[in-house]
């Protein structure tokens, strides 16, 4: 099939799946369809290991959305499919360039649509497809658009057709058709501007020979002064961080115990400080090791101090993790506390990658490229696992289990709450849960969230 066949096929599929429906199972089906069609359309040379992994994550993300229908799984589906489409055509382009490519194509959609020669192939034969497009589809689309416009502007014009009853929501159909075509067109027929192509070398993981030349970063500092400035700065920062770690741990583990509310407030404040500190630490190291110092034989002390600073920041992460664990033991699990672990884990990964960057003499782009994949992986983990179920199952073991909070604020906890209601003989709680489940299961087939279909009454 040609590109325009894929565009019209997936537009038709979008209309069938979403007309007069809410978002649910239909988006999962659409995501799987896009994934499989991309596999068929992608030439063999572009079916790299990365492409195949993205194919699997796209299908799994689509299944996850069909199962949960929440925002993390929606984000996973969108990002996975965009990456899959991007990799199917550009196996050597850096992933981060997907962002400007996506933005540019959204803004240039109208211009690219009317450039028919670029996406509808020329042919010398007058086949059935040409006649259908020219004699039926194009006139029908134009008539439909202007009929809607004229009907909105004239009651008498609209009343001409009022005697005919047609169970069709014209405006919804038009909106879904336009949205479906917009998505399909940009997915199958996106373009990468030359200006973006030229920026690909900036995101390379390895230094070029030109970058290895020793030269000062700033005109007002010579190389020796800049190197010594880095040594003094990192030495002072290491001393400062040592003092902070001491006071940080003293306040957390030795000082007079706080109330649970104070403990919660202080834990979140300190974790935020730790994460900000680590981000700043990585940025400072990127500043000093963005070029020539990676290959400077006299930069040994600078590298050692940078690695010590990384190690001290790892200790800081461990301290914050221990405190968050204590907070959970005192107050129970919540989304926010699990998010703290996620951010601390990403911070630790960032420090490890920074160490690899220094040791392996990698560019700053290596750090950014690598972290972008870890952020993507975090989104996948958030979408594939029922974290609400985990939170509820763990908190159920506590004596101060807040039933109403988990019923109203924790997603996908119904299975565990039903078990809790049966164990405690709480008929009202069971009735409330089943009522919520009944409302979710009342949706039409394509709008269903599969999770609720698995709950036994």
From TrEMBL:
The keyword Nuclease does not apply. Keywords: Membrane, Transmembrane, Transmembrane helix. The keyword Transmembrane helix applies. The chain crosses the membrane at residues 6-39, 51-84, 96-116, 128-150, 170-188, 231-250, 270-289, 301-320, 340-358, 365-387. InterPro entries: DUF4153. It comes from the Bacteria. This is DUF4173 domain-containing protein. The lineage of its organism: Bacteria, Pseudomonadati, Bacteroidota, Flavobacteriia, Flavobacteriales.
């Amino acid at each position: 099939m040609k590109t325009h066949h894929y565009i019209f096929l997936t537009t038709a599929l979008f209309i069938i799946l979403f007309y007069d429906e809410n978002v649910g199972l239909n988006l999962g089906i659409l995501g799987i369809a896009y994934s499989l069609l991309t596999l068929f359309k992608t030439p063999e040379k572009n079916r790299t290991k990365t492409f195949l992994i993205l194919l699997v994550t796209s299908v799994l993300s689509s299944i996850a959305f069909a199962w949960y229908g929440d925002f993390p799984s929606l984000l996973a589906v969108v990002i996975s499919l965009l990456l899959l489409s991007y990799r199917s055509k550009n196996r050597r382009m850096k992933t981060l360039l997907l962002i400007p490519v996506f933005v540019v194509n959204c803004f240039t959609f109208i211009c690219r649509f009317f450039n028919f020669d670029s996406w509808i192939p020329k042919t010398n034969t007058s086949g059935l497809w040409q006649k259908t497009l020219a004699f039926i589809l194009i006139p029908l689309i134009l008539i439909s658009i202007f009929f809607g416009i004229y009907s909105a502007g004239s009651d008498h014009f609209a009343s001409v057709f009022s005697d005919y009853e047609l169970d069709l929501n014209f405006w919804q159909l038009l909106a879904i058709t336009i949205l479906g075509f917009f998505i399909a067109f940009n997915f199958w027929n996106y373009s990468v501007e030359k200006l973006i192509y030229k920026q690909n070398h900036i995101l390379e993981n390895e230094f070029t020979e030109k970058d290895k030349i020793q030269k000062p970063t700033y005109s007002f500092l010579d190389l020796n002064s800049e190197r010594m400035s880095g040594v003094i700065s990192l030495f002072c920062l290491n001393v400062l961080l040592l003092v902070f770690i001491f006071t940080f741990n003293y306040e957390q583990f030795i000082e007079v115990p706080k109330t649970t509310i104070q403990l919660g407030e202080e834990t979140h404040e300190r974790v935020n400080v730790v994460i900000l500190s680590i981000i700043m630490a990585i940025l400072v190291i990127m500043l000093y090791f963005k070029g020539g110092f990676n290959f400077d034989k006299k930069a040994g002390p600078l590298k050692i101090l940078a690695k010590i600073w990384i190690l001290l920041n790892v200790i800081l992460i461990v301290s914050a993790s221990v405190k968050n664990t204590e907070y959970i033991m005192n107050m129970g699990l919540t989304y926010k506390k699990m998010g703290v672990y996620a951010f601390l884990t990403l911070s630790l990964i960032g420090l490890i990658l920074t160490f690899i960057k220094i040791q392996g003499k990698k560019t700053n782009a290596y750090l950014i490229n690598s972290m972008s994949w870890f952020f993507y992986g975090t989104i996948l983990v958030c979408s594939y696992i029922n974290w609400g179920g985990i939170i509820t199952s763990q908190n159920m073991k506590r004596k101060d289990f807040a039933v109403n909070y988990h019923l109203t604020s924790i997603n996908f906890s119904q299975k565990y709450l039903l078990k809790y209601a049966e164990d405690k003989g709480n008929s009202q709680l069971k009735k409330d849960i089943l009522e919520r489940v009944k409302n979710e299961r009342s949706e039409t087939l394509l709008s269903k969230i599969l999770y609720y279909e698995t709950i036994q009454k």
